[in-house]
């Protein structure tokens, strides 16, 4: 869970997740939306993969990144449960 919150704490990583909501993208396509280096984008993608928020798959010559929506569902359940406990106390 700590990796998840670390990944979500960075504005650039949140923007990457937002871009991936619209569909799968390569690292190069993601980088077009930022004013940071491609190695910087690569590092952000690595953090997101480690937190299991995105996954990568090879398609032809390119590696595509995709949103792992099941993790978001798990986080949402956790938030709802956390909120419910707070209201009952």
From TrEMBL:
It comes from the Bacteria. The keyword Transcription regulation applies. Keywords: DNA-binding, Transcription, Transcription regulation. CDD domains: HTH_ARSR. Gene3D superfamilies: Winged helix-like DNA-binding domain superfamily/Winged helix DNA-binding domain (1.10.10.10). Residues 1-87 form the HTH arsR-type domain. NCBIfam families: HTH_metalloreg, repress_SdpR. This is Autorepressor SdpR family transcription factor. It comes from Rossellomorea oryzaecorticis. The lineage of its organism: Bacteria, Bacillati, Bacillota, Bacilli, Bacillales.
